[in-house]
Design goal:
Elements (H helix, E strand, L loop, with lengths): L12 E3 L6 H22 L11 E5 L4 E5 L13 H11 L2 H8 L19 H18 L4
Antiparallel strand pairs: 1-2, 2-3
Organism: Suillus fuscotomentosus
Protein name: Fungal-type protein kinase domain-containing protein
Pfam families: Pkinase_fungal (PF17667)
Length: 143
């Protein structure tokens, strides 16, 4: 049998802010919410970096779909949820404040507890997607 190789010269995805119609934008946002929900419910995976650079519209030949790329743990500050920003500020804020907030002296020794984990939830990704929409509405003119 012969192996066929296809060279794709035209990208199939474009940034979310390059939407062609408002219906396409809302539809892509809906798709991205569904993707996030499915990833959490079926695989227990959070995207953790929903931003204007990672939210895309895919042209699949039969129409368009919302798409999320770059599924690694990161975080783009302007799009992070308030809860995550607060947790980060507690963990890396002013050394005196941080020491009081997550280092607890044990009465009989000088041991300290480690800093708390940053807890990231599904609603944090949804809030990030909301900020992506706000950014698009403010910074881009539309179709």
């Amino acid at each position: 049998s012969r192996t066929h190789v296809r060279l794709v010269l035209k990208p199939r995805a474009r940034p979310l802010h390059a939407f062609r119609t408002r219906v396409e934008l809302v539809s892509a946002l809906r798709d991205i919410v569904k993707i996030q929900q499915t990833a959490v419910e079926e695989r227990g995976i959070l995207h953790r970096d929903c931003s204007v650079n990672n939210a895309m519209i895919e042209d699949d030949g039969n129409g368009t779909n919302g798409l999320l790329i770059d599924w690694e743990f990161a975080g783009t500050l302007p799009f992070m949820s308030r809860s995550l920003l607060w947790q980060l500020s507690e963990a890396v804020g002013d050394p005196a404040t941080s020491a009081r907030s997550w280092k607890v002296k044990v009465a009989t020794s000088s041991l300290t507890k480690p800093p708390p984990l940053i807890l990231h939830h599904y609603h944090d990704d949804l809030e990030s997607l909301f900020y992506v929409l706000v950014c698009i509405c403010i910074e881009f003119r539309g179709p």
